[in-house]
Write a structure and sequence with these properties.
Number of strands: 6
Radius of gyration: 18 Å
Largest sheet: 6 strands, parallel
Order of helices and strands: EHHHHHHEHEHEHEEH
Helix content: 40-55%
Strand order of the largest sheet: 3-2-1-4-5-6
Strand content: 5-15%
Number of helices: 10
Amino acid sequence: MDGVEAVLFDVFGTVVDWHGSVVEELKRLPVSNPEGDSDWHSAFAIEWRKGYLENTARIAKGTNEEGPRSVDELHRQILDSMLSSPRWSHIGSILDESQRAELNLVWHRLHGWPDSVLGLNALKRHVLICSLSNGNVRLLADMAKFASLPWDIVFSAEMFASYKPNAAVYLGAMHHLSLDGNPEKCVMVAAHLYDLEGAAKVGMKTVYIPRSGEERQHESTVKTKVEGGFVDVIIHSIAELADVFAAQV
């Protein structure tokens, strides 16, 4: 990590626990269990997230792909589609507009993983720490307030009119950091290999942090460059990354 000036973090799943947070709020809805399914909250959250992943990946492929560049708008489109589907229409029938709008804001209220706040505060003593998320700017700002995430800078893919892993997102963040042409001075931290692959393609250093349920590929199969893989470093907490930078002082 020698020479690194900025560490950029994916947020959903990497810094915050989207699944646990969304399930927690779904359990507060005045909805009875459909057909006795006590785990419907998890299934609903996973389907909502799947729609997000599919649509952001599609839009990231090119500038002519249709779809909102604001994740708030995208999440709402997916939510409304789900609530009108046979599987979830029983929920849609009891949620009015204000309740749907409030539910959509659950993504602004995601809790950090247990190591996130402590690790980020330790890391920012040594280097700039920034979000680089597909979440829109207001979502990320609200989330930072809610979860006490101490970003130096909030970067959102919304600023670059695409989504990760489109190269424009990584390059745009480096431009605003005045690190054009010096990608080796930036590190991308993520729990998703597609994100790290996108960052690596533009020359950024990469750090993989495994999080429960975030990557289909088993943790043991992800290798560093020294081991024949493509990531630079594998960590198991953000505090561990802070220790790496502290050791360089």
